[in-house]
Write a structure and sequence with these properties.
heterodimer; A: about 300 residues; alpha/beta; Rossmann fold; Alpha-Beta Plaits; six-stranded mixed sheet; four-stranded antiparallel sheet; 11 helices; about 25% strand; B: about 325 residues; mainly alpha; 17 helices
Chain lengths: ~300, ~325
Amino acid sequence: MISAVNVSRWYGQVIGVNDINCEIGPGITALLGMNGAGKTTLIRLITGQLRPTTGDLRVFGQEPFANPEVYRKMGYCPEIDNFYEHYNGFEFVNYLARLEGMNAQRAKARTAEVIEMVGMTERAGRKIAGYSKGMRQRIKLAQAMLHDPEIILLDEPLNGLDPVGRREFMDLLGALANSGKAIIVSSHILFEVEQMTRSLLLLHRGRLLATGDLGVIRELIDKHPHQIRIETDTPREAAAMLANLPNIVSMRFERSGDSIRLEVREPNAFYDAVMAAVLEQGLQIRGISSPDNNLESVFKYLVEA
Amino acid sequence: MASPIADLTYRNYDGPLEPAMNRWWAIAKLSIKLSIKKKGFWLWASMSAFWYVILLIVFYFNDSVTQNVGPAAQKLSLMNNLIWKDQFLNSFSESQLFLFILALLTGAGTIANDNRAKALLVYLSKPCSKLDYVIGKWMGIFIPITLVTAIPAIVFYVYCLMSYRALGFWTQDPWLIVKLCLMVLIPGITYSSITLAISSLFQQGRLAGGVFAGVYFISYFVTLAMEGFNASQQMQGQSPPDIVKNLFYCSVDGIQIGMAKVILGTNGSPKLPFPGQMGKNLIVPAPSGWIIVPIFLLICGVSVLLAWSQIRAVEVVN
C-alpha cells in the first residue's frame, strides 16, 4: 500500500527524515521514535501534506502530495486536537463527511454511525470546546473512519484516553486491521504499542533504525544477548544443569533466591535445550520468561547502538 | 428502537461518494452558515439598506403630497429631475461602511481561524484540493455580501419600476437592471478577495480583522481628504487637479464607488440632504474605466493569489 524509497525531507538545514526505505501493508504498523525522531514528518509525507525533498514515496502507486485521489483512500487523525471549538462533535464530523463527498442524508447517517463506533453518541451534541482530551481523540478517529479508508494514519492516538477508552480504541483498531486495512499508529508509549502490534517502524533522529516484526528484529540484535529468567525452587541444582547447555554467555542468581538470570545467544536453540533438560535430566522449573524480548528493550538497544 | 448499548464494532461505508468538484460548496456552505448564525450579521445587513429605506420613505411622501396638492405642486416635485441610476449609486456608496463591517464579520477569521486551529491539517487531508478550499472560502464571503447588496437594490428597483415609470424610471435607462446586476457583484468580489488574503496571513481572526480595518480606514481617510479638497476647489470656482480625482478612488471604498460609476455610466448627482450647489461640489467625476477596471481586477487577483500561496496544511520552515 505504501512504499518509500530513499525518502528524505529537509526543513531548511534541519532534517526531518533521512533516507527512509520501507514498505507498509495491511495490519497495524507502529511508528516508533522519541520526540523529534521524524514520526510526524513521515506521517505528513504519507498523507501528502509535505513533499519529499528527495526520494520516491508512493501510496497505492501514486504520489500522495496534493493528490485528492490518494486522500480518498486515506483517513488521517492528526496529533493536534484544537479544531473549531464552537462546533459540536456531530457538526464537525458531518461537515467533514460532506467534504468526503457524501450527500447530506448519507453524511448524517454515516456521521451517526462512526460516532457510535467511537462511543461518543451521548456526547456528540456538546460543543468541542467542552470536550476532554479523550473525547477529542475519539472524534478525531471518527472523522478518519468516515469514508471507510484503506489506510488510516493516527498520530499519537492514545494520548489522553482513559484505560477503558484505550482498550476500546485498540479493539477498534484491531478490527480495522483484521478487515484488511493498513493502520499506522505513531507513538512513543511503547507499552501501549506493544499491546496493539508486533510490526513496527523504528525512527531515530530522522533515520529508520529498524522495520518489521518485533521478534525478528530482536533476534537480529546480536550485540545484546537475550536475557532469560528461570524460576525454580532449586536454583543451585538448576544452575549446575543449565551450565552445560550451549549458547549461554552468563548466569547469575537473583536476590530473591528463587530464580536465575541468564544471557544467551540463539534463544530458540536454548529453549529447545531447556525442554530436553526438563524431560531427560529432571530439571525442575516453575517458570521461564524473557525480560528483554519486548519493545522497550529493542528500542533501547537500537537507539543506544 | 436503537439499543442503549453502543455498538463499537467497525462498520463499512458502502454508499456512493460524489465527484470531487462539489467540495468547495461544502466549505462555502459552512462558512455561510457560520456567518448567518451571528446576530451582528443580520444587524449590519439590515443597516446596509438604510439609504434605500430613506429614499423609499422620501419618494413615497413626496409622491403622496404632490398628488394631493395638485398639478402645480407636481411641477415642483424633486422627483421630476431625478437621475434614477444615481439613487442606486448613492445607496451603494452609503452602504459601504456596513458592507465593510459585514466583511469583517464573515471574512476576517475565515482562514486565520483555520490556521489557529490547525484545521487545515484535517481539511487538506480530505479529498479536496487547495483550489476547492480557496474557492469555498471565497464564495463563503462573496455569497452573503452579494446577497446583502443585491436584495435591497432589486427590491428598490422593482418598487420604482412599478411606481415611477411615468417619471422616467424606465425610459432614462432601460439597461439599468443589467447594470445593477453587475454593480452588486463589486462589494462581494472586493471584500472576499481582500479579506481572504489578509486572513490567510494571520493565525488569529481578530488580528486579521484589525489589519483589514486598518487598511480600510487609512485608505478611507485618503478618499475623504480628496473629497474635501475637491469640494473646496469647486467652491472657489476652480477645477481640482486630476491627481485629486484619481486619489479619491484609491481606497477600498473608493475603488468600489469608481467601479459602480463606470458600470452605471454616471458621475453621480447630489444626495438628498445636499440637493443644491453644495451637493454638486461634493461630486467627484467618474474615473476612466480603462484604468480602474484593470486595477480592480489586479487587486482582486493578486489578493486571491496571495491567499493561495499562504494556504498550506503544514507550516514549512525555510
